[in-house]
Amino acid sequence: xxxxxxxxxxxxxxxxxxxxxxRSDAPPRPAQPGRARSNGGRPRTSSRPARGAGSGAGAARTxxxxxxxQAGGRRGSGAANHARGPxxxxxxxxxxxxxxxxxxxxxxxxxxxxxxxxxxxGADRVRGTDDxxxxxxxxxxxxLIGVVGALVPAVVLAVVLGATVGPVAGVVALVxxxxxxxxxxxxxxxxxxxxxxxxxxxxxDRHPRLYNVTEGLCATFGLRMPELWVVDDPAINACALGRxxxxxxxxxxTGVLTRLDLDQLEGLVAHELAHVKRHDAVVGAAxxxxxxxxxxxxxxxxxxxxxxxxxREYLADQLAAATIRYPSGxxxxxxxxxxxxxxxxxxxxxxxRLATTRWIWADPDPGAGPATRADMGGSLDTLAVRAAAxxxx
Length: 393
Fold this sequence. Notes:
The chain is mostly helical. The chain has 16 helices and four strands.
């Protein structure tokens, strides 16, 4: 057999004549029936072009590459493919890569985002980034309330002393009274508010159910055990008091302890602990102490409602319902307040004394009938609106 002429551009390799001669002298390998392919009797042909075709072996290899490899380079090599991420430059594979467009193997659509996890509630869900912002805002509001409440009498006294004694005496009085008043509101607001409410300490031996429920919910909210106080009144009501950097205090009427079942009691306690968590209790205690003379004199509660913030009871309901196991218990407690007994005569919950503390109670209208509550409008803090919102849970 005559040797086929070699391409003049192909490099000579040492030992090539001996290797070719050995291949030509070797006997043909017998066919294996088990491995034969049904190709119609046609001889097997190689898809690789012969050496020397075109302009060298490099051109032949470039021609056989995939389009994605020609445009974007060899798959799996280089920093470019690493930057494109897994799945880039691959065709016909499902996953993050997706279909490939010409010019670098980039995906035609952004990778799908993972499915959101289900909402979780409890101690890890109660306080988030937004809650931290609200807490700081509540602390600033309580401090501002104390400063403004101390400045009003300080300015009046300074003007009087400045006109009668001298300007130096007026300035000294202004500074001393303002600082003293602000510190008093910050440190003694809870004690003063308890005195206004006429509350007494609650003993664990007399009300063990209240202590057990509160202690269990404090672990859920991530709070320390607050002090528990009781107001002797048959109406069903409760409120929360607190001061910045100090322990909170929960106040319940005797109607809560005698008329609510376990689920309703759990819902109401969770509502008050939500006020503690949001630091609404700090604002409420400071507002009561500062506005008590004005509210007592004018018998108007609009100033107190504006100072503590509208919608605070509604937001506390939502946080409590998202935390406790049976949100329906809180709704049943609100319904029980609607049909509960009226306050006792001369009680702190009876007008006109109610104006001084109205908007810190869970029920701002104790003893009001359904017709009276219907005429109070659609405020978020009324029982009708809150009970209807809790019906969705």
